[in-house]
User: Which sequence fits this backbone?
């Protein structure tokens, strides 16, 4: 392998890295937009719950969501434990929002 071969490999690697990073950036943008839509829905749920004196958290609903998401993750060859951790992280933030709404700090 001479010097010009090395330059060529480097160019190919750079191009491949850049192509993959473009896709990663698109996926990250989609995740942000999807999360924003999810939080718009959960905010409405929070207001509905506050209006009807329902508790911010619903552990039964959470358990079925986790079971469903773990199965989806397994089918998609994503680590189910990671999927569960991610959902729990998001739900914890939603519950925090619902508590804020219920306390009337959201108006
Ligand atoms: C959105 C809700 O409130 C909470 C948040 C959930 C979620 O983010 O998916 C699920 C259950 C609740 O603990 C709900 O009850 O549906």
Assistant:
């Amino acid at each position: 392998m001479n010097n010009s071969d090395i330059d060529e490999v480097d160019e190919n690697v750079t191009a491949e890295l850049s192509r993959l990073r473009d896709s990663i950036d698109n996926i990250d943008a989609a995740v942000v937009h999807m999360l924003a839509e999810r939080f718009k829905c959960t905010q409405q749920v929070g207001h509905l719950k506050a209006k009807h004196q329902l508790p911010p958290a619903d552990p039964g609903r959470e358990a079925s969501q986790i079971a469903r998401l773990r199965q989806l993750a397994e089918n998609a060859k994503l680590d189910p434990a990671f999927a569960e951790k991610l959902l729990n992280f998001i739900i914890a933030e939603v519950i925090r929002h619902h508590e804020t709404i219920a306390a009337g700090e959201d108006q």
Q: What stands out?
A: The mean pLDDT is 94.
